[in-house]
Amino acid sequence: MTAKALFDHKHYPAAIDVRKGLLDMLDVVRELIAMQEAIEEYYLEHEKACKTYEERKGVSGFMLPSIPDMMTRCKTIFQKADQACQYLMYVIRLFYPEAPVKKYYKGLEKTVKETHGENDAFSKFFEQVVPFIVEIKNVRNCFDHRNAELRLSGFELQEDGSVLSPTIEMDFDGSVVSRQDLRTYLLDVMDGLVNVIEVMLPYLAGKHIEPMGLISLQVRQVPEEKRRWKLVQFGLWWPLGEGGFYAQ
């Protein structure tokens, strides 16, 4: 919806095919939905395992809880996350076609800094998000190839008798994930990825939108009371009338 609000082809140079960008964003959304569903399925299996454990605790021969196919579930989640990043990259390259293809997001970061300057807000944003996106790719690679640099641990019995939920940790190709609760990490990756995408689109639009005759269009955050859709934070702003007009 954010892309639809911002990517009106009438306001961009003909060389930027924002209509293709909208189609690529549909693919981004599909991957995010599949990722969210896989995470929710993992959460359900986690709760089911914990419930079964509590019901059988103290019974002779009881075992620690376990989640079936935990490795495969995580592999699927990070495949979807990485694919969403790749589709997002297709959108960004519509605006920066000169970026080197083989260097993934690091190449895009370099191009953005060369274009707008290292102190530009968009350049700073890219500098912050690239390590996160590269981390997603590295986690996927470790799951795909079962690299020893990533460790996925199941439920563990602690000395005090408590049970530690499954954890994840990784140190691979410059990306370090300290050992932490797997459920929390999955949610953090999902939330972080959605936030990156939501902020990336207004930057792309704001850097390339063209004036409408003598009227200078801007990309602005829409006040909540003026939003047509509550969850769509950004829109095109026209300096017309008192307070301007938000095209949504």
Description:
It is a single chain. The chain is α+β, with helices and mostly antiparallel strands. The protein has 2 domains: 2-210; 211-248, no CATH class. Helix content is 54%, strand content 13%. The protein has 6 helices and 8 strands, in the order αααααβββββαβββ. It has a 3-stranded antiparallel sheet. It has a 3-stranded antiparallel sheet with strand order 6-7-8. A hairpin with a 6-residue loop joins strand 7 and strand 8 (245-247). The longest helix is centred in the N-terminal third of the chain and has 39 residues, at 18-56.
Give structural attributes.
single chain, 248 residues, alpha+beta, 2 domains, three-stranded antiparallel beta sheet, 8 strands
- Category from helices, strands and their pairing: alpha+beta
Uncertain runs are: none
Assembly category:
single chain
The number of helical segments is: 6
| Proportion in helices | 40-55%
Sequence of strands across the biggest β-sheet: 1-4-5
Compact description:
This protein has a 3-stranded antiparallel beta sheet. The chain has about 250 residues and is of the alpha+beta class.
